[in-house]
Amino acid sequence: MLSRAARPAIRAAASAPRVVAGVPSTAATYATLREIEDRLKSIRNIEKITNTMKIVASTKLNRAQRAMDDSRKYGSTSNEVYSSAETAAIPGDKKTLLIVCSSDKGLCGGIHSGISRTVRRMFAENPNSYDLVIIGEKCKSQLSRTNAKDIQFSIAGIGKDIPTFADAQAIVDQILLLPNEYSEVKILYNKFINATSYEPTSIEAFSVDAITQSPNFSAFEVEEELVPHLREYGLANSLYWALAEGHACEISARRNAMDNASKNAGEMIQKYQILFNRTRQAVITGELVEIITGATASEDM
């Protein structure tokens, strides 16, 4: 049997390992608290950035929609002429020139990848039937992986601001310098449906031969030497329409993407704040348990 004097020392020795073992756990919890706090700070900064980008995109969207409405007048006028003349592409072995309208900027959802998927689907349905002219670095980087040999040239720098008719005319001037002849030209762009939706759509433009051979073209009484100028002007009109409408879709998609990002950041902040509070409470509880345990052991000694 142990004496009464030895029992307090034995109890103190038995409780000592528990106190020492609790120290590493508390230190690890402090590190976890710092990590959660740093993550919360990072997410809050991201939320500020996405909110700012959403406000900027909302401001730009009104201007982009007004420019889109103005550009539709240009494009619809050319389409009415071709529709009245019953213009159609001349069947043959010539390829179709496909002008892909995108931009150089990202952070706007899947607006560029949707155009690229449409192009790949068109090539899958009719292989070796298209040559590509790509406007914007985003679609160029995506299509270069699968259709690099079909790209005639690409243009960057369009879409930093609202596209103008001068931008469209400059692109058409380069297209007319291509050595190949094409049966028709298709302009692929994102059609603006509303502020939350859009879809890839194409506008047709025709060759000089297709215009002159139209059944009702003689009703317009256009001199033959002016037909190339008419075709060039009509192509510029349609391209301006496509660029302006695609720009409005991009701004709208960026605003929606930043809105979703801000909401996701807010949800993450709430979750991490709850985790931080629970972890901090666990640290406080652990320290209290250690203090009480140490005090109890001291009283018993």
UniProtKB/TrEMBL annotation:
GO terms for cellular component: mitochondrial inner membrane; proton-transporting ATP synthase complex. The keyword Transport applies. It is a peripheral membrane protein. It is found in: Mitochondrion inner membrane. The keyword Kinase does not apply. It comes from the Eukaryota. Keywords: ATP synthesis, CF(1), Hydrogen ion transport, Ion transport, Membrane, Mitochondrion, Mitochondrion inner membrane, Transport. It holds the Pfam family ATP-synt. GO terms for molecular function: proton-transporting ATP synthase activity, rotational mechanism; proton-transporting ATPase activity, rotational mechanism. F-type ATPases have 2 components, CF(1) - the catalytic core - and CF(0) - the membrane proton channel. CF(1) and CF(0) have multiple subunits. Belongs to the ATPase gamma chain family. This is ATP synthase subunit gamma.
